[in-house]
Amino acid sequence: MATSIDLPEKMKALVLRSTHEPPSVETIPTPQPTVGSAIVRVLVANTISYMRDIYNGKRRYPFPTPLVTGTSFIGRVAAVGPDATKIKPGDLVVVDIMIRSRDEPTDAFLAGVIQGFTEGSAKLMRDVYRDWSYAEYCRAPLENLTLLNERRLTGAKQDGGLGYSLSQLAVSSAHMVPYGGLRDIGLQAGQTVVIAPATGAFGGAAVNVALAMGARVIAMGRSKDSLAFLKSKIPHPERVETVPITGDMMADCKELKKYGPIDAYFDIGPPEAHASTHIKSCIIALRHGARISIMGGYREDIAIPHSFIMHSNIRIYGKWMYERQDIYDLFKLVESGLLDLSVAEVTGEYPLEEWKAAWDDAAENARFGQIALIKP
Ligand SMILES: NC(=O)c1ccc[n+]([C@@H]2O[C@H](COP(=O)([O-])OP(=O)(O)OC[C@H]3O[C@@H](n4cnc5c(N)ncnc54)[C@H](OP(=O)(O)O)[C@@H]3O)[C@@H](O)[C@H]2O)c1
């Protein structure tokens, strides 16, 4: 028997029927909990700067239609399947979008966004978790729910809380992604990491996470203005240097080297940056034995300086999103006060019907900490 609190029969959801036509708000049956899942009332759902290009087909992300759109979110548990042993109705949770098959975890996809790259991942999205968070209720695998310490995170400062609003907590999702990559390469406190590009939503979050991990950061970006904006908003600006990407590969490398030995390079460029000079500038600025985490969304191959990489014992790691443990441990950083989410600047909060305004806002305001939210 599932445990639940008053689930309505029907709910509103933002449904995409094809990438050739805009989505629309429809009334559909409220999902019911099953073994291994929970139903969560969606309170604040994130957007991504390139949300429009996902759903209009420009990004060429494969996914089944019709699709209830959406991305990661903060919500309150409404019902749980019979196998839930800890999470219960009423709990505040963050729900992330990386869904993995239980019998083959490499069959993975991003709920609401992309069906992944295997037959198994496509099947799992198509047949089981096709409907996501731009809806009043969302059915998610139990393991995608992370219980939040509501008292500590949202309690008043005078009561020992951190005083975050739910909207500020939503920016945690952008931080999970770079935490996955920075942990993967074993970034240590006291080390220096170059982050490029550092001026977008995920790149800026990478700077915040690296600082929380105790590292020193060299942030790169094409826009001096955006680099200055980042530095003005980041906690611990004394541990952040900025180097503009000028297009002169060797000159930029020389600038990076001014800051001493660099232990790691974290890359999170968008598809358009696949031929950017920053990739080579960053690699050849690294010390012997350094590590690289490539998390960029490049669709084309990127050129790498093979001889330098080989002779310098450089290790290159790819990372798609994060592991489960990374999410739990990221919240330990938040709860301890080391990772500051008050950097979140909510640029707008929109009902489902105003999805277009939300996605436009997300595309136009994608600098460090900025976040447009959908409140179904
Ligand atoms: N591996 C993963 O799991 C994972 C997860 C999430 C996202 N991603 C990828 O990460 C990418 C970046 O995410 P984001 O949220 O930071 O994107 P964003 O907010 O759209 O920012 C894009 C960043 O790239 C810079 N940029 C754009 N065009 C460039 C070019 N031609 N050369 C150099 N820099 C350029 C922008 O800086 P200026 O325009 O100011 O110069 C900005 O810093 C996404 O496109 C996505 O594909 C990967």
TrEMBL record:
Listed SUPFAM superfamilies: GroES-like, NAD(P)-binding Rossmann-fold domains
InterPro entries per record: ADH-like_C, ADH-like_N, GroES-like_sf, NAD(P)-bd_dom_sf, Zn-ADH-like_protein
Span of domain Alcohol dehydrogenase-like C-terminal: 203-335
GO cellular component, one term: mitochondrion
Domain of life: Eukaryota
GO molecular function: oxidoreductase activity
Gene3D superfamilies the record matches: Medium-chain alcohol dehydrogenases, catalytic domain, NAD(P)-binding Rossmann-like Domain
Ranges of residues in domain Alcohol dehydrogenase-like N-terminal: 53-146
Protein name as it appears in the record: Alcohol dehydrogenase
